[in-house]
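User: Hello! I'm new to structural biology and keep hearing that structure can be predicted from sequence alone. Could you demonstrate with alpha-glucosidase? Please show me the input and the output so I can see what each looks like.

Assistant: Of course. The first part below is the input, the amino acid sequence of alpha-glucosidase. The second part is the output, the predicted structure written as tokens.
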Amino acid sequence: MRSTFSSVILGLVGLTTAQTVTERVIPTLSPQIDALPSLTPTILDPTAPDSQACPGYKAANVVQAGHGFTADLTIAGADCQAFGNDIADLVLEVQYQTKERLNLKIYPKHISPQNSSWFILPAHLVDEPAWDGKTTANTSDLKLDWSNDPTFQFKVSRINTGEEIFSTYGHKIVYEDQYLELLTNMVDDYNVYGLAENIHDFRLGNNYNQTYYAVDAGNSIDYNVYGVIPFYQETRYHSGGNTTAHGVYARNAHGQEWLLRNSTIAYRTLGGSFDLYFLSGQTADGTSSALTTISQFQVGCIGTPAMQMYWTFGFHQCRWGYENISVVQDVVDGYKSANIPLEGVWNDLDIYELYRDFTNNQVTYPLPAFTNFIETLHANGQHYIPIIDSNIYVPNPTNASDAYSPFEHGAELQTFIRDPTTGDFYYGDNWPGFSVWGDWLIPSTQSWWTNEILTWHKGTPFDGIWIDLSEASSFCAGSCGNGRLDENPVHPPFLLPGDPLSFDFLYPESFNVSNATEASSAAAASSSQASVISASPPLPVATTTTMGRTEPTPGVRNLNFPPYVINNVQSGHALGKSSIAPNATHNDQYNTTEYEMHNLFGLQISNATYHALLQVFPGRRPFTVGRSVFAGSGKITAHWGGDNTSTWGSMFLSISQALTMMMSGIPMFGADTCGFTHNTDYQLCSRWMELSAFFPFYRNHNVKAAISQEAYRWSSVAESSRRAMKVRYSMLTYMYTLFYYAHTKGETVMRALAWEFPNDPSLRETYGQFMLGPSILVTPVLIPNVETVNGVFPGVADGTRWFDWYTLAEVDAQPQENKTLSAPLEHINVHIRGGSILALQEPKLTTNATRNTPYSLVVALDSNGKASGSLYLDDGYSLVPDAIKLVEFTYADGCLKYTSEGSYASTQPLANITVAGLQSTPHDYGHGPYANRSSSYWGHGKPKGSTLEFGGKNCSSDGRSVSYSNGVLKVTGLEKDTGNGAFESALSLCFGW
């Protein structure tokens, strides 16, 4: 959150002119500039040295091992010093780690403990994949070849086909203390995906720059945002042959850039080492796919995502602007009155006393009244989640009444990041005033953080934690609180949402068409507000000092302004703008700097919060939602898309953002539904509530300077939400099962069409539609003022069948047809893929109530009359469940069967079975003497006298009925037959025709 007024924040250097920090201000070039040469050293400074003119390295002293080799790399000429000081002697390590994974490391030969973090990312901070103890060069999917002609270069290719997947041939490797570079050659018109986090088209294209530096700047389209996950997956289509896919993961946490160009990708970092993992994407039969590659990345490199608690998949409501308990209670009542499900109530900064973490405003959120409110939520099967910001307020030392125990406890333990110029704590600025940040490199910080969360929970019995500003964000440049703590509480030098002259009058595209009168009034009010501000500016005029690219100094690293300028979205592209300065130091024995640690802050604070919640709720899965993420964050946290806008474009791009998160092992992802900044309208909010119903994390959230946007505010949005949530809540079992496979196998939850149908190149850029797992196709409306939507139905050329979710009618579509579908405002198109079996439940207003309803099975047949599916069951919350159950469904030759493994007891019965896609009429159902007879009349090909069995026992026909129409067979009234639980025994049900 909190970049609502980023345009103001970005113009400020500090809180006073005395705090001005020298920074480079270079004209910003678009990340997509066709005129740029493919190997421009930096898009920000065309006069900078050409790093490819550096001498490169020569390999020598090769030592073979069964699973790889090592070698020395020695600089092949005079020092280059393009963007740092050259490292003359390097070590090359190549490991065939597993059959599908090859690792290449390059790092300095002479590393002292004091500078190890400059170059080597510690394994205790970020998982470091290792050799499996059995794979050799002879058993690997991949091989690495290298040459010293003219300098060291290498390529990675497949053993079975010789296909090159990565090659630096023809390019120099550059290794300096503040700049690393290598380039790989790419095939024509390549298809690369990932490099999260980005707000960009799903297929990245070949004229794109991905900058990595965690930043508080809203949803910066085509620039760096909150997350840093340096992994890409490439897909190659082959005429007349199967598609191939592979992946590349660069384990490095420094600020970095990936420059995608027509024939190359350049990988550049501001430090660290080359630690590259090449993933074959292959399965046992030698074929490869995007889904397999993504699974290999998660299982083998970063760890699979956490299993989430069942209730977290419900709908959540939040707003920055719930001024007191009564307002929040009105929201809860509003959802109930509108008959719209509400699972979680969230508080933004409004809950706090003067924006300070772990406090309660005793006027607006007083204890124990607020405690009682939360306990009432719990009694109704609902949950409560508050925000915790990543900064800690520093009390005014001259004001005895300004005590703040979270700071005092941390200061006693010396747990905060330090200012290298004073040796004292680093004092930046954030919502409460001058603030400090925890140093997650030392154990005492975890103890302090856990204690604060445990203490706060006693009065505010939350169910999870929302971590914000974890980039980490500071509203000034440098340690601006030095010598000024007696001014605290100093609030940000910009208008706060809700202040006079701060109201947001922006509305979505086409608002002037659908709401002409309101649009005219908003335009007039906006002009009036702007005139008042212009006549008497409430803010100081921002000042900046320009500075060109720094020159490397032998033996010295310039941390705040490194010689290579990455395209950081912040003003002047300075690394220290709106964040902790890179030269700030940590309290570990080596005084590691923020230059190395910046991109890891979000991972570390989420990890600390995860472990604190294990103390609050022993044995229960922690629920955290963090803004800044790194590779591996999915093991400990969910993630939301940050400060998006109430625009159709922001809604559209949330799909590609979500798909990259699925690739990155963070499947519990969602965007702020209806938009965070600016004002939504009934059209946009209706469509967005529908779309987000199929994202794993489903939350409506916006800023207090805009209008309220709870789903019940408009009748059309309320109806859209009810209908979409009815679908979502009925398939919570399916989504939960998908998460089980994500957690255990690294599978994806939301899926690109191209992943499920890999041999169709027409899908390579399709993300206006997406799939939920392998079985559900979602086709949302993403533009205003329409009542239809176009969508493709992939796979029909090969016999794939699709069925409308609502009617189970089969879709009549041609291969690659962009079919027009009816989509009135309250409707989102959802289709079931033929060959799927789904276990569903009756939707209620909470997940717990839904979970306690009977099951139904929907069988959608493929072109061979077959289908399959699975269902995962456990208690929904335990970190290590005492019991689980995995149910496998199959349908073939007219018989539905399921088997189950595990001891978890689910007592809900099976009520109904529906089979869609029958291509012949079973014994004239619905006609003649057998109309509406029990299902025992229809078994094993006989018109009567056969039996329906559950667990080998003959079932009574009382209360059961069968109907058939247009290829859809329905069996209802099975509750008596499964009274001990739907899946407590095996079932075999056969229909004859």
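User: So the tokens describe the shape?

Assistant: Right, they're a compact way of writing down the 3D structure. Reading them back into a model, for example: Residues 1-39, 924-947 have pLDDT under 50 and may be disordered.
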